[in-house]
Design brief:
About 35% of the residues lie in helices and about 10% in strands. It has 11 helices and 8 strands. An 8-stranded parallel β-sheet has the order 2-1-3-8-7-4-5-6, with helices on both faces. Strand 4, helix 7 and strand 5 form a beta-alpha-beta unit.
């Protein structure tokens, strides 16, 4: 049992807010995760900090978003979508206009700021804001179900407090909004492991996007091929992310823990199991720094809830004995797909697919290392220096 103090940022008011019923993004995931944690007894025995969410103020939102954009968001939510709002990305297939769009985004941002404040004050070691993870929102443009960027604002809050911040995004989609926010800064290191922009929105996040000016070398992209599996994902994490984090020595980590990397997600093409994310979390805990966990994508709701529940259990240090297949205290998991516990079953990967994906991931590792390692006093791994490989 760990003595880490965990905070789950949530408030019942959020349950009244929702995206349109036909939208793949479901706001209910955070509340369902909290229900699952309670039903499995995973909040018992944890040093949990009472942490209610709150909506961010306009002044707080303006730390990243422009006043004119915030005005257009509120106009659209009230039913007045203007030409200016359309030009700012509102009203598209992945940016529907609905009455709760500004209110929900404000709550997600406020929850992220609350989480950051708890870490700054030392009142929590791990803070979960599963309401957030809206990493596509730009200063004045909406995209990818994202209108207000809670993770960028949380990173700014932490940096303004004098913290050296590492933002690690393992959502299947490239965190382009957060990249834009810190592309010219070196007090926030941004690392995004995502499905390649060759096959997935937002069609960017390539190895040669490494930052500009003072931020050059402090923006790291690890684009992964479709069908990337646990072994290949963890290879990239081990060979790229861990060395860069070790060299950077952050004071705090902000982790976008999207669950759309999991096999079976309807919008993406990666093939991870949640076992890989457990391994990742265990490595991050070795850094012994505070961690803010944001939600992000995940469009198979049951897989997402189970994955976030497993993540909480891992951060809480509550052991890895998966005893929940028949329920705990008579409470069933409630999944119709997998009754084996919180961990996913091991996926069989054919030899041909394994070899093809691993070869492509190794090439990505090499390109990333060539682009960013020199800025951190690192050299590419000795066994990943094939002759004739050029930067992408």
């Amino acid at each position: 049992m760990s003595d880490r103090k965990l905070a789950f940022i949530y408030s019942p008011e959020i349950e009244l807010l929702s995206y349109p019923p036909d939208c793949p993004f479901k706001t209910q995931r955070a509340g369902l995760t909290r229900q699952r944690l309670n039903s499995l007894g995973l909040l018992d025995g944890v040093q949990q900090v009472e942490a209610a969410a709150r909506p961010a103020t306009l002044n707080e939102l303006q730390a990243w978003h422009t006043p004119v954009y915030l005005d257009e968001l509120q106009r659209a939510a009230a039913g007045d979508l203007t030409v200016t709002g359309l030009k700012m990305g509102l009203g598209g297939p992945d940016t529907p206009v609905f009455k709760d769009l500004f209110t929900y985004g404000s709550w997600a941002c406020g929850a992220g700021l609350n989480a950051a404040e708890l870490l700054i004050a030392g009142e929590a070691n791990i803070a979960f804001n599963l309401l957030g993870g809206f990493h596509h929102a730009m200063a004045q443009r909406a995209a990818g179900f994202c209108y207000l960027n809670d993770v960028a604002l949380a990173c700014m809050k932490l940096a303004d407090a004098g913290k050296l911040v590492a933002y690690l995004d393992v959502d299947a989609h490239h965190g382009d909004g957060v990249q834009e926010a810190f592309y010219r800064r070196n007090d926030v290191l941004t690392i995004s492991m995502h499905e390649s922009g060759k096959t997935l929105f937002p069609w960017g996040g390539f190895e040669n996007e490494i930052g500009e000016g003072p931020g050059r070398g402090y923006n790291v992209n690890v684009p992964l091929p479709a069908e990337t599996h646990d072994e290949a994902f963890l290879l990239a994490f081990d060979r790229v992310v861990l060395p860069v984090l070790g060299a950077y020595e952050p004071d705090v980590v902000v982790l976008e823990l999207g669950m759309d990397t999991l096999a079976g997600d309807p919008l993406t093409h990666l093939c991870l199991t949640n076992n890989a994310l457990v391994d990742l979390i265990q490595e991050l805990l070795k850094l012994k720094v505070p961690i803010l966990v944001a939600g992000g994508g995940g469009y198979n709701v049951e897989h997402t809830v189970r994955g976030w529940t497993l993540a909480w259990r891992t951060f809480a240090g509550q052991g890895d004995d998966d005893v929940f297949s028949l329920g705990l205290g008579g409470v069933m998991l409630g999944s119709t797909e997998w009754a084996g516990g919180l961990r996913d079953p091991v996926r069989y990967i054919g030899a041909e697919q394994r070899a093809a994906v691993t070869a492509e991931v190794e090439a990505v590792i090499q390109r990333v290392a060539q682009h960013v390692f020199p800025y951190h006093g690192l050299t590419p791994p000795a066994d990943l220096r094939p002759s004739g490989v050029n930067g992408g």
